[in-house]
Amino acid sequence: MKPLITRKKTDETVVTVVNAVLSVVNGESNTSRDSEKTTASTFEDVPEGGFAGWATVLGAFLIQFCGFGYTASFGVFQDFYTQVYITNESSSAISWIGGINAFMTITGGVVAGKFFDKGYFYHLMIGGAILESFCLFMLSLTKPNQFYQVFLSQGVGAGLGAGMMYVPSMAVVSHYFRKRRALAMTIVASGSSLGSIIHPIMLNNLLGPLGFAKAARANAGLVSGLLLIACASMRTRLPPSPAPIGFREALVKFSKDRAYVCATAGMMIFSIGYYYPLFYIQLDASLHGINPSLVFYSLVILNGSSIVGRLTPGFVAHRFGVANMLTFGMVGCSAVIFGMIGLGRGEAGYVVVAILYGYCAGTYISLISPLFSSFAHNQAEIGARIGIGFAFSGVSALIGGPIDGALATSEFIWWRPALFSGLVTFIGFCFMVVMIQILRRRSSQKIEEKA
């Protein structure tokens, strides 16, 4: 393969560096140390923004709005389906719709990340946008008490479409940012928070007056328009890797990175309990006879606070560290979930839980991609690192909601799922503490080697 030079020739030194880098990518290097040096040279000229960079951030922001923002709004559907639309199924069964949607959205990153590394970014974006839009319109055609119709359209179809876009839209931001990557990615991640505010407000105000079909079509129209803008805004900057890392090779290589393994395991366990407030806080408030206005806006309050939580790390992560702030968010979530055991005694408790959990969850979500990206040894690994990490978390997202519903039973005994979710999120936090210790030890060893 002949070296590809996308910039105009300026002098022989630049040409030599680029050729050396491409020869390393093609497997012509003799040592991994030389490979790391030359790979780093390729990305020294990261623009840290520019029109194309910030337009890509905007597009990725909208992808998160329509993807995970929609997934995080499932609490509205959980409440509506349980009490109105799918009354012939238990809350545990209904939560499988939200669970499979989250699973497909997150776990789709395994395949999508691999295709992103191969250069199929635009195919993933356009294909995913068309699929999600189509399935959300199909949701409006489903009939009451027809669980399988809703499950296939909203759970499987819309989740698969969002999953095709989720990880690539985060990974492409790294083409334009390096030093300011945490800031850019937290802005992108805040898109899902804004989405999880707008979707509940829209749905709660339309489901009653217009009915399910018209409300679902209106929501699908909003998503379709925003996805069109997103696809038109995003652009890749770097060429695809000539030799992207394979899935098996990635698993073998990444499994030797103890810090990455601890992070992946911790987030996987944590995600089992993470979705409990998102899926059940509105239903919990409704069944406890809380003011209907507060019930409708419980998710809005939670996700509004999440925006603040997602944006905060972008400004302070460079001081406190991505890993430290993410771990702080996890232990905060665990503490708030334990606090949900006492809910049901007044409106103030729901407001406090929504604000605190939203902030902590926002801090956690916004830093997942930056953390996984930080483990990558070169640009070609970013998609795989993020995709595999999200995949394991996606499995937890699939089972967490149904477990919570089964623990609550048809009598809705809320302390059981709250206790369970609090415990698993705390265990996930413990894994992250171990990861931080490994990273600190690794950093100390590097300092000693340099000395």
Automatic annotation (TrEMBL):
GO MF annotations, alphabetized: transmembrane transporter activity
Membrane-traversing stretches: 51-73, 93-113, 120-141, 147-170, 259-277, 289-308, 320-343, 349-372, 384-403, 415-436
Subcellular location: Membrane
Pfam family for this entry, one: MFS_1
Alphabetical list of Gene3D superfamilies matching this protein: MFS general substrate transporter like domains
Keyword Transmembrane: yes
InterPro entries noted in UniProt: MFS, MFS_trans_sf, Proton-linked_MCT
Keywords: Membrane, Transmembrane, Transmembrane helix
GO cellular component terms given for this protein: membrane
Bilayer topology term: Multi-pass membrane protein
Family assignment from sequence similarity: Belongs to the major facilitator superfamily. Monocarboxylate porter (TC 2.A.1.13) family.
PANTHER family associated with the record: MAJOR FACILITATOR SUPERFAMILY (MFS) PROFILE DOMAIN-CONTAINING PROTEIN-RELATED (PTHR11360:SF252), MONOCARBOXYLATE TRANSPORTER (PTHR11360)
Name of this chain's protein: MFS general substrate transporter
Species, as recorded: Gymnopus androsaceus JB14
